[in-house]
Design a protein that fits this description.
It is found in: Cell membrane. By secondary structure, this protein is mainly alpha-helical. Helices cover 79% and strands 0% of the residues. It contains 13 helices and no strands. The two termini are 28 Å apart.
Length: 299
């Protein structure tokens, strides 16, 4: 399909849907496969699937990749392996709905990092949008009671998701300076680096005696994570960042809680509370205001 016919909004909305499914898969995997083993299985199969298609492009891009190999490996270690390992660990302690809403803090992390590091200018509507997003995430993390934030009395899973958000926000900002190589080359190098790091995490989990081999449900969840959130969504996300920039692209992660809440209720049967609804309204309002602000500033 010609590049001009692929709308960035469609690309990034698809990413959000697939990542929402990842939260549900992570929750379904809890108790059926250990989180570090799930991360390893995910990146083993993702790397294996992409390798035959990517190698010709890797060879062609090698002169560009080689001097940036450490940098690209760090991107894979942080944005792929570490984020997913913490993400799946969090799924053992909190709900899929909470996980997806808490991911909406990523645009705020990206905004702050871009402002501090690159002095990226933002419109007042963008700031208001980020503020609404933060309020929605705070309500979810506090389970509707903001007093728990003041007392730092957080669910372990919610606290882990805050850490995961910091990891992926940093990864998104770092994509700004990625080398100009074929997207398959990019995915292959990041996936391969993630596979190596995942091996280390799985080895630590095994040494601690926490490894749980997958049953049928765990294997099915692992298969989903290897194909859809890993290869397809990550590739589309990189393309989306190229099309409209990291600040605007990251805002579409705010659709993850919307899709995630619906999937969690329908597939898992989780209960949707009033504070979840308020949080969803905040993040949807946030993405609308911030996107209008971004377009207004460009105009």
């Amino acid at each position: 399909m010609p590049q001009r016919l692929i709308h960035p909004y469609l690309v990034l909305t698809t990413v959000a849907l697939l990542w929402a499914g990842n939260a549900v898969a992570g929750k379904l995997a809890a108790g059926h496969i250990s989180p570090m083993l799930l991360t390893l299985v995910r990146w083993f199969f993702a790397t294996a699937l992409v390798t035959p298609f990517a190698l010709p492009h890797v060879r062609a891009d090698w002169s560009v990749i080689r001097p940036r190999l450490v940098y690209l490996s760090l991107l894979g270690a942080i944005g792929f392996a570490s984020f997913n390992a913490i993400f799946y660990l969090a799924a053992n302690y909190t709900t899929a709905i909470n996980i997806t809403i808490e991911q909406s803090a990523m645009p705020l992390v990206v905004f702050i990092a871009n402002f501090v590091l690159f002095r990226t200018r933002v419109a007042s509507l963008q700031i208001l949008g980020f503020g609404l997003t933060l309020l929605g995430v705070a309500l979810t993390t506090a389970h509707g009671d903001l007093g728990t934030l003041l007392g730092l009395d957080l669910n372990r899973g919610d606290a882990l998701m805050v850490l995961a958000v910091l990891f992926y926000g940093g990864y998104t900002v770092a994509l700004r300076t990625k080398p100009q190589i074929h997207w398959l080359s990019m995915i292959f190098v990041l996936s391969a680096a993630s596979l190596v790091v995942s091996l280390v995490y799985a080895a630590i989990e095994f040494a601690l005696g926490h490894t749980r081999l997958p049953d049928l449900q765990g294997a099915t969840a692992a298969a989903y994570t290897a194909i859809f959130p890993s290869l397809i969504a990550q590739s589309l996300y990189i393309r989306g960042v190229e099309m409209i920039g990291p600040n605007r692209a990251n805002l579409f992660i705010n659709f993850v809680p919307v899709f995630g809440a619906l999937l969690a209720v329908v597939i898992i049967g989780e209960e949707l509370h009033l504070y979840h609804v308020v949080s969803l309204i905040c993040v949807l309002g946030g993405i609308t205001l911030a996107e209008r602000g971004a377009r207004g500033r460009r105009g």
